[in-house]
Specification:
The complex is a heterodimer. Chain A is 41% helix and 24% strand. Chain A is of the alpha+beta class. The longest helix of chain B is centred in the C-terminal third of the chain and has 25 residues. The chains are: A alpha+beta, B mainly alpha. The interface between A and B is large, with 36 and 46 residues.
Chain lengths: 254, 182
Amino acid sequence: MSEPDHDRQLGELIKSEADELLFDDLHFDARLKEQVRYKISEERTGPVSQARKEDKIRFRWSKSWLYGVSAAIIAAIVITTVIWQPADNDEIVAGDPPNLIMGGIENAPIPGTAGWTGGDLGTMAAMDPVIVFFVEEADLLYGEKVNVPTYMIEHYDFREFRAYDITDGRAAKIAIVYEEDLSRQYIVTESKTEIEKVYDEYDMIDLNGMQVYVHQEWDTSNVELRWSSDRRYYSIAGPIGVEEAVKIAESMSK
Amino acid sequence: MEPAGRVEQIRFSREPSMALEEMMTHYGTTVLRTAYFYTGDRHLAEDISQDVFVRAYRNWHGFRGDSSVKTWLTQITVNLCRDRMRLRMSAEEPTDPDSLLGIQPASAEDEVMRRLSRSAVLQHVMRLPAKYREAIYLYYYLELSTKEIAEAIDAPEGTVRGTIHRARQLLAKQLRKEELER
């Protein structure tokens, strides 16, 4: 018998004996699958998350009342100005207040023409991130593999990749956004150029031989971690505290 | 020498919830058995196997497919088993680090050992030192290539090849010895 055959036989024997003698009643059954689903849903709707979601709903209701009233006022103004057409646009009826809305619309400079002060359209377009949801798309935009952390903070979920500063189809910066709910996010950024600082002062810590700069606000858990490696710049920012930020940084390795 | 090629034919959805169901269906039992092999504790293995899939679900957005899903899940399983066994060891009396791999002749349940005594080869595998047992399990039972094993246990591929080779030699020696004793 040749060595490959012998080896194959050995493998088959080990498998069959293990299945019969060691693992015969060990199966990942429906009960275990259900427990996995339950654990995942508990993470999403746990006590902390649930309390925050309830706050969000209450806030939404009060906000929607405000939106409703504002929308009604705006609608009234628009309807009034559309329906009511003065005979002569240049004629000002004594006692009428200046129609700022109407005047504003008519006189607004067209974007891109003389008089437009809204900012350079190319720059504005470049500042708007392209949003993708799969790492392969992020890699494609960035032109190389994005350094994705393998550690995620409990109760947070991955939300999206944001690609910034796109020139000739290549992004200079990728941000990975994680959220617990709309008001709590942390962002991990990788960039080919230095990332703009959020704070004025940072402390320096050593993380596995790497110089990492850290700032935590004294009265909140808002933190920013910054470092560079292999000509790439990284930052982690959000209301997550230094300890969690460090865990995320430690989980990032290419 | 590589096991007969087992290229992963399953295509997994990019959508995390669907991918989770697919992973549990295709690899749930494999993950559970791997956890049991490492810990020797059925309840701990069930716990760990669930955590493997929770972790895989949460990190699915970052999985590129550089390795197969099977290798990736094995890597997560091995890491979780090591973490849990380390926690257990630090809580109890310090034991031989070589005994990190769970099912051992000295401590395994009597029933398991009784069963293993009926085996031709497996009982000898389980008597090998931990790193050789691990290599045999990953190579022959999970049918991972040496490259995949290296990824799963975070070791150089050359080291893995050497370990498998040595494990085979030790196993052959044990089997010859048994034959002579009969």
